[in-house]
Design a protein that fits this description.
Elements: H1 3-8, H2 24-36, H3 38-45, E1 49-50, H4 57-77, E2 86-88, E3 100-102, H5 103-113, H6 118-146, H7 154-176, H8 181-195, H9 201-209, H10 218-248, E4 252-253, E5 266-267, H11 268-293, H12 321-329, E6 334-337, E7 340-343, H13 344-371, E8 379-380, H14 387-407, H15 409-416, H16 420-459, E9 461-468, E10 474-479, H17 483-490, H18 515-528, H19 539-548
Parallel strand pairs: 4-8
Antiparallel strand pairs: 1-5, 2-3, 6-7, 9-10
Helix pairs in contact: 4-6, 4-11, 5-6, 6-7, 6-11, 7-10, 7-13, 12-13, 12-14, 13-14, 14-16
Keywords: Cell membrane, Electron transport, Heme, Iron, Membrane, Metal-binding, Respiratory chain, Translocase, Transmembrane, Transmembrane helix, Transport
Enzyme class: translocase
GO cellular component, one term: plasma membrane
Length: 552
């Protein structure tokens, strides 16, 4: 029997090119690698290149604040009691001693005043949630304005949008759990929205609250969804999001040596991991400092929730403020028919609320349909080179801000001594006018920046040096741009507007042009026609100017 056959049949030691482990730790690592494939996986990914640009840190802030939320949330669950059972408070906060309240509110007071470090952990948890949603929104806007959502990253865009929406709703449920007067007003707001649903609104409300408002089940149910369901879904989406980032490789801005087929930057190990680790502790430290200095959601100052009271200056966290703004802007219209009342003042905002979120969510697919571009994109756009897209993004942000101001119209009225009716009507008009104006102004700014880039490429950069020519004319000397700067300003693609097919085909048969084709062609002209982009300078134009007169 040969040595090979002996080894195959188990009669001898298999040959191996790997050296004998030097110690027990290396032997344990070999044992794990033989069963999990960690070594080969790490070898192929630990040297993965990541580009170095400040805007990419926005996604890291999202990840790190999510980790902070999970860590602090686990600590808080050890002491919080998600029950609406009534108790009489006897604790360290003297102003509320002897007051009847729910166990949820009482346990929140205990966490704040009796649990060691409890108040700081509560503050860090809440501030991290605020920063988490803010970082996600800004990160998505960076992805949107630079076109990082294009093929092959459409699925990752969907994951990010879902994370943002779930984060907003989970935050709403989180600050509703203490059952204080402020959060109870928010839950009452939610009940009004549910009741506005035609036909089934009453049944949904009874199911959600376990009876007539406020019922006895809403806090335990919000707790289950807040702690288990939504974080579990978000964790899965986050893992999928990161896997796709690694799989597709990272996007990068145009620059010297950067193409659609490579990534210029630093390896994951050890450079990027060291910087990422330091940045995590920096984010954690800044969050802790903010939490120690600025109090958020001081539930003890408003007292426990009572259905017959409404707290003054009641405002949700900023990321849910636009839903409040929709309700306050809408007139109190009602329709009564066949013994039923349809509350349009709440139902219409309830329908617009998801549309505001979905509008930015579905845009990448609309743009892909308009452009018909099937290529993979790994080089990012400069926002100025996509004026229509940048205008739409700015218009969406302006609409969000209008609704945010409308949601706090009472605070603006009291703080600036203005009429609340004047503010409401201004925001009603602004709801329709401001996004349009923002789109137009943003687009014109982008077009102006494109013209400046074109002039800079053709004539160089102004040097501030004044020169007098032999015939007496004074000119300013322009310095030519470096090849790297020229590449940065001219690396972007400029698509041509779509055109309708010929009226007849090659056989002389009339072609049928669909309404969809006509619409796509018309929108495409707005995107890529004369009013949608400034033609970038060609190589021939550059050579003609530089060879003929030089830069002056």
């Amino acid at each position: 029997m040969s040595a090979a056959s002996s080894a195959a049949s188990g009669g001898g030691k298999p040959s191996s090119s790997r050296a004998k482990p030097a110690n027990k730790a290396e032997a344990a690592a070999d044992w794990a690698d033989g069963r999990l494939g960690i070594y080969s996986l790490a070898k192929s990914n630990m040297r993965k290149i990541f580009p170095d640009h400040w805007s990419f840190m926005l996604g890291e802030i999202c990840l790190y604040t999510f980790i902070i939320i999970i860590l602090t949330g686990v600590y808080l669950t050890l002491f919080f009691k998600p029950s609406m059972g009534e108790v009489v408070y006897h604790g360290s906060y003297a102003p509320l001693n002897g007051i009847r309240m729910s166990e949820a509110y009482a346990s929140t007071l205990d966490i704040s005043f009796d649990v060691r470090g409890g108040l700081l952990i509560r503050q860090i948890h809440h501030w991290a949630a605020i920063l988490f949603v803010a970082a996600m929104l800004v990160h998505m806007m960076r992805v949107f304005f630079t076109g990082a959502f294009r093929k092959p990253r459409e699925i990752n865009w969907i994951f990010g949008a879902l994370l943002l929406i779930l984060g907003m709703f989970d935050g709403f449920m989180g600050y509703s759990l203490p059952d204080d007067l402020l959060s109870g007003t928010g839950i009452r707001f939610m009940e009004g929205a549910v009741l506005a649903v035609p036909l089934v609104g009453t049944y949904l409300s009874m199911f959600l609250y376990g009876g007539e408002f406020p019922g006895h089940d809403i806090i335990p149910r919000l707790y289950t969804v807040h702690v288990l369901l939504i974080p579990g879904i978000m964790l899965g989406l986050l893992v999928g999001h990161l896997i796709l980032v690694v799989y597709h490789k990272h996007t990068q801005f145009a620059g010297a040596g950067r193409t659609e087929k490579n990534v210029v930057g630093m390896p994951l190990m050890p450079v990027y991991m060291a910087k990422a680790g330091g940045f995590f502790f920096l984010v954690f430290g800044v969050t802790a400092v903010i939490s120690a200095i600025a109090t958020v959601n001081p539930v003890w100052s408003v007292g426990p929730y009572r259905p017959d009271q409404v707290s003054t200056d009641a405002q949700p966290d900023w990321y849910m403020g636009f839903s409040e703004g929709l309700i306050r802007l809408m007139p109190g219209w009602e329709i009564r028919a066949w013994g039923h009342t349809l509350n349009l003042g709440v139902f219409i905002p309830l329908m617009i609320f998801p549309l505001v979120l979905v509008a930015i969510w579905v845009y990448p697919f609309i743009e892909a349909w308009i452009t018909g571009d099937k290529r993979e994109h790994h080089i990012l756009d400069r926002p100025r080179n996509a004026p229509v897209r940048t205008g739409f993004g700015a218009a969406w942000i302006s609409l969000y801000l209008v609704l945010l101001i409308a949601g706090g119209n009472d605070l603006f009225a009291t703080h600036f001594h203005l009429s609340i009716n004047a503010i409401t009507w201004t925001m009603r008009i602004g709801f329709f006018v401001i996004p349009v104006l923002t789109f137009m102004v943003t687009k014109r700014i982008c077009m102006g920046l494109q013209r400046r880039d074109r002039d800079k490429v053709l004539h160089g950069r102004e040097s501030g040096i004044i020169k007098r020519l032999p015939h007496g004319e004074f000119i300013e000397v322009h310095q030519p741009l470096s090849p790297a700067q020229l590449h940065k300003l001219t690396a972007h693609d400029q698509l041509k507007p779509a055109e309708l097919p010929a009226a007849v085909d090659e056989n002389g048969v009339a072609r049928k042009v669909t309404l969809s084709q006509k619409l796509r062609t018309k929108i495409s002209r707005g995107y890529f026609g004369e009013d949608g982009q400034i033609p970038k300078p060609t190589a021939e134009e550059y050579k003609e100017i530089t060879s003929g007169h030089g830069h002056h």
